[in-house]
Design brief:
globular; 7-stranded mixed beta sheet; 11 strands; 0% helix; mainly beta
Protein backbone atom coordinates (compact mmCIF):
# COMPACT_ATOMS: atom_id res chain seq x y z
CA UNK A 1 0.00 0.00 0.00
CA UNK A 2 1.34 3.42 -0.94
CA UNK A 3 1.41 6.06 1.76
CA UNK A 4 2.67 9.63 1.76
CA UNK A 5 3.54 11.61 4.87
CA UNK A 6 4.40 15.30 4.98
CA UNK A 7 6.68 16.69 7.67
CA UNK A 8 8.01 20.11 8.54
CA UNK A 9 7.47 23.14 10.76
CA UNK A 10 4.00 24.48 11.27
CA UNK A 11 5.13 28.09 11.65
CA UNK A 12 7.46 30.09 9.44
CA UNK A 13 8.34 33.76 9.73
CA UNK A 14 7.89 36.14 6.81
CA UNK A 15 10.87 36.35 4.44
CA UNK A 16 12.15 32.94 5.58
CA UNK A 17 12.18 29.71 3.60
CA UNK A 18 9.45 27.13 4.08
CA UNK A 19 10.74 23.56 3.88
CA UNK A 20 8.58 20.46 3.83
CA UNK A 21 9.39 16.84 3.14
CA UNK A 22 7.16 14.06 1.88
CA UNK A 23 8.18 10.51 2.68
CA UNK A 24 6.76 7.85 0.41
CA UNK A 25 6.32 4.28 1.59
CA UNK A 26 5.23 1.27 -0.39
CA UNK A 27 6.74 2.33 -3.73
CA UNK A 28 9.94 3.92 -4.93
CA UNK A 29 9.89 7.57 -5.95
CA UNK A 30 11.99 6.56 -8.95
CA UNK A 31 9.23 4.35 -10.40
CA UNK A 32 9.20 5.11 -14.10
CA UNK A 33 6.31 7.28 -15.22
CA UNK A 34 5.35 8.59 -11.80
CA UNK A 35 5.23 12.19 -10.64
CA UNK A 36 5.50 13.49 -7.11
CA UNK A 37 3.68 16.73 -6.61
CA UNK A 38 3.17 19.54 -4.11
CA UNK A 39 -0.26 21.14 -3.84
CA UNK A 40 -1.54 23.69 -1.36
CA UNK A 41 -4.83 25.09 -0.20
CA UNK A 42 -4.97 28.51 1.40
CA UNK A 43 -7.83 29.37 3.76
CA UNK A 44 -11.00 29.92 1.79
CA UNK A 45 -9.39 29.09 -1.55
CA UNK A 46 -9.18 26.15 -3.86
CA UNK A 47 -6.34 23.77 -4.44
CA UNK A 48 -3.24 25.20 -6.08
CA UNK A 49 -0.77 23.03 -7.97
CA UNK A 50 2.72 24.19 -7.01
CA UNK A 51 5.06 21.88 -8.85
CA UNK A 52 6.22 18.32 -9.32
CA UNK A 53 9.27 16.14 -9.82
CA UNK A 54 9.27 13.28 -12.26
CA UNK A 55 10.78 9.82 -11.98
CA UNK A 56 14.08 10.99 -13.47
CA UNK A 57 14.36 13.80 -10.94
CA UNK A 58 13.42 16.68 -13.21
CA UNK A 59 11.22 19.32 -11.57
CA UNK A 60 8.51 21.47 -13.12
CA UNK A 61 7.04 24.49 -11.38
CA UNK A 62 3.98 26.68 -11.44
CA UNK A 63 4.84 29.89 -13.33
CA UNK A 64 3.44 31.94 -10.47
CA UNK A 65 5.88 30.39 -8.00
CA UNK A 66 8.84 29.69 -10.24
CA UNK A 67 11.05 32.41 -8.77
CA UNK A 68 10.60 31.10 -5.20
CA UNK A 69 10.10 27.34 -5.39
CA UNK A 70 12.43 24.38 -5.48
CA UNK A 71 11.50 20.69 -5.44
CA UNK A 72 14.16 18.06 -4.95
CA UNK A 73 14.38 14.45 -3.86
CA UNK A 74 16.54 12.06 -1.86
CA UNK A 75 16.25 8.61 -3.36
CA UNK A 76 18.12 7.01 -0.45
CA UNK A 77 15.34 8.17 1.89
CA UNK A 78 12.57 7.81 -0.69
CA UNK A 79 11.35 11.31 -0.04
CA UNK A 80 10.98 14.57 -1.90
CA UNK A 81 11.20 18.08 -0.57
CA UNK A 82 9.56 21.44 -1.13
CA UNK A 83 11.35 24.70 -0.48
CA UNK A 84 9.52 28.01 -0.85
CA UNK A 85 11.63 31.08 -0.26
CA UNK A 86 10.73 34.62 0.81
CA UNK A 87 7.41 33.53 2.26
CA UNK A 88 4.62 36.01 2.96
CA UNK A 89 1.46 35.60 5.05
CA UNK A 90 -0.43 34.69 1.89
CA UNK A 91 1.62 31.49 1.73
CA UNK A 92 -0.26 30.27 4.79
CA UNK A 93 -1.92 27.07 3.68
CA UNK A 94 -2.28 23.36 4.10
CA UNK A 95 0.42 21.78 1.98
CA UNK A 96 -0.17 18.38 0.43
CA UNK A 97 2.11 15.98 -1.36
CA UNK A 98 0.76 13.59 -3.94
CA UNK A 99 1.90 10.78 -6.20
CA UNK A 100 0.50 9.70 -9.52
CA UNK A 101 1.03 9.17 -13.21
CA UNK A 102 -0.21 10.92 -16.33
CA UNK A 103 -3.71 9.47 -16.35
CA UNK A 104 -4.08 9.78 -12.57
CA UNK A 105 -1.68 12.52 -11.45
CA UNK A 106 -3.00 12.60 -7.87
CA UNK A 107 -3.57 8.93 -7.25
CA UNK A 108 -2.25 9.07 -3.70
CA UNK A 109 -2.24 11.97 -1.22
CA UNK A 110 -0.61 12.77 2.05
CA UNK A 111 -2.81 13.94 4.90
CA UNK A 112 -1.61 17.52 4.60
CA UNK A 113 0.65 19.75 6.67
CA UNK A 114 -0.64 23.09 7.92
CA UNK A 115 1.86 25.93 7.66
CA UNK A 116 1.29 29.42 9.01
CA UNK A 117 3.44 32.34 7.93
CA UNK A 118 3.50 34.85 10.75
CA UNK A 119 5.95 36.83 12.82
Amino acid sequence: QVQLQESGPGLVKPSQTLSLSCTVSGRSITTNGYYHTWIRQSPGKGLEWMGAIDSSGSPVYSPSLKSRISISRDTSKNHFTLQLSSVIPEDTAVYYCARGYTARPFQYWGQGSAVTVSS
